[in-house]
Amino acid sequence: MIRVLAIAALLLGVGPSGALASEGGGGLINVDKSLFIQIINFALLLFILVKLLYKPLLAKMDERTQAIRKSLDEAQAARADAQREREENAAKLQAAYAEAQAIRATALKEAAEEQRRLVEGARAEAGRLVESARNEMAQDVRRARQELRQEVSDLAITVAERLIRKSLRDEDHRRIVQDAIGRVDKVN
Q1: Smallest Cα–Cα separation from 158: which of 56, 45, 91, 166?
Q2: Residue 166: which region, alpha, beta or left (left: phi > 0; alpha: psi -120 to 50)?
């Protein structure tokens, strides 16, 4: 501001004296009291313009500069926050992926173990069932043999009784043996 006033005063002061000196008294600018009034008017106008326009204009420009700086700082901070959050999210995602892989591996291991236990249990149950069926069949065979022996002995006693009761002839003897064999075949 002071520079502008100094330059204006210099031009106004030097200009008329140079014009007066070169022309010898009459030039574009006459040094009289109207020149001083014009200088005062110019200085007053310059003062009013500086107060009313220049300073508010500079204040607004400073305010705008500060607002732009603040916006740029906020944008840079937001960009840094976004980058930090992006990195945190990437780290969380990586950790979640690793955790999911660990859970999957554990689940597969547990499933394999459960399958192995179920297969072993099924094999053991099948072995017990086969053994039980064998034991039951062996008992049935023993029972059948016992019943067969009992029946054969009953038949032998019956045949012996018949032989004793009758005096056996050769024909009767053959017929009795054939009857006993026929009864044994019917039982089996």
Answers
A1: 166
A2: beta
* Residue 34 near residue 12 (C-beta atoms within 8 A): no
Residue 38 in tokens: 């014009």
As a 3-state breakdown, the chain gives helix, strand, coil percent values, each rounded to 5, of: 90, 0, 10
From first to last of its 188 residues, the chain has per-residue pLDDT tens of: 666 666 666 565 545 444 444 445 555 767 788 888 988 999 999 999 888 888 888 899 999 999 999 999 999 999 999 999 999 999 999 999 999 999 999 999 999 999 999 999 999 999 999 999 999 999 999 999 888 888 888 888 887 777 676 665 677 767 877 888 888 777 66
Both structure tokens of 158: 């019956």
What pTM was estimated for this model as a whole? 0.38
Q: Which two tokens stand for residue 116?
A: 């192995």
